Records
---
Amino acid sequence: MKPFAFFKFLFVVVATTMFLSSCGEDIIETPVPPNIKFNEVLGYISSDSDVTLGGSFSVSISGVKGTSPMKTITVDEDGTNIDLSSNRITFVSGVGGANPALLLLENKNSFDYVVTIKAHTIFGIKTYNFKVADEAGNISTLSLKINVIGASVNMLEGILLNQSGPTGQGGLDLDTGAGTGSADTKADIRDEGVVNVIDDGTWKQQISGVNGSVIKYIKKGQNGIAETFAFSNIKYKEEISPLWANGIAFNQKSTDEQKELSAKVEKGDIFIVKNGEKYYLITVKDIKITPETTGDDRNKDSYTFDVKF
């Protein structure tokens, strides 16, 4: 046999052998996981969203089996399954009793569920994962980032004048930032005036509550307040009232023991004011001390407060 013909014959033999061998092997099927999606339906979210503190969110989710029937649906928050006993999660369609929840009967092939979740109770972002597993162990996951926010604070500037000046000054309305008389019914805080109007005109530079207001200090690194605490970081109304428990009460009393007074107020001081169910967070942005003079210019000393509520 000629060399060329021999190699041609050998190629045909090898190719035939490989073909016959492959025909005898099973074809391995690539498993297809469940196909799941968020439905874009009015009233349900299907993408990353903001939720107010204490609020809930709902998703409409559909699933269709892949290679194998579906078995379970699981909902977790940052990788931890949400405990059904916490009453934070509801499968409106009636599935439940556990998390993961078993998919039964026709739901193994396809389902349409509404899931309602009470969002986390701290400000910031957490990821919620919706996982569907089939009987072969294949898993498909949908995820949402939920940012818990609050109602934006109201912020204003108010100037509190020395009480010992002309009539009509010495009080501050924290709802409007308007200066008032120290005994005005609209005042929430007031200045304590000078040491002695006749003998000593030195400004005390102290404040107190009025018309039912109680004031406490907020001090960084003390009584549970973080060293990194900053007035500027308070963005939501819901952040203010919890600070009351961490406030430090005034420890000075008026001469008649009828009211609690601050120590000498300094620039940068932070206070929390409670009046009934209202809370105000205030900080001293500036202090103006005027020279001792007579007439209308006397006792125009003042604090400038930033107020959040």
---
Amino acid sequence: MSEHQRQENGREERLILDLLDGRGDEPAALAAPVAPVAPAADDEVESGLLREYVEVLGLLPRALAEVRPRAEVKERILEAIGRGENTVHRPTGSPATTPRAGWSKWLLPLAASIAVATLAVTGWLVIQVQDQRVRIAELSEELGNTRSLTAELAMSQGMLAEVRSRLAMVTAEGAEFCALRPPVGSPASGARGVVVMQAARNEWFLRIEGLEPCPQGRKYSVWFATEDGAVAGPIFAVKAGEAIELTVSGRPDKINAIMITLESEPAPSAPSMEPLLFGDERMQLL
């Protein structure tokens, strides 16, 4: 574009702006000449342009009459807006939605995985605890059985040692035997007993069978008859059909006879009745 053309365009633009600024004035004012900026020939051209622009501007209305849209148009517009809201999506790369969308994609699978893992670990722990409780119960039962067996074994070992001791005493050389029999008129006519004595040992062995069970508040008592009178020995109770085996220790010297009576508790210092069993004869078998 040449310099002359640029000047022409600038002149037209200036005239249009001046015309718009003064379109509220009277036509005479609009037709007033602008301050001269060029020679007289230019003024004529500028006046012609100004007159043409005024005619064009007069054809334009100041305002348009308000026209209300029909109801169906309004409904169509609202329907189109509603469809647009349902179909509008944020851009994939939007910073406001991308992190939240990414979070929602792996949050639910992560929560489900954690829940499944928690349930699995909890179930495994429950099973382990139950197994441990069962095992503890089994071990406790085994321990109780072991203790019972240990106690029974200790008791058996003690009884075995006692039997061996008695057998050794009975079979030892020089052992003496004293039979205990019911005297004439004794209520214990079906009872029998024997005492194994040995001078080299401090303990004697006594075995009695056939005695009746003890009445309530009474027990059987062993008495040693000496030159100084009767000396009390051990006391014992009898159950039905039970044989009694006792180890007698702490006996007095110079024993002449051995007697069994039924005494009340506590036992008196001397026999309160005639003996149920009596023995005063010793014999040596070996």
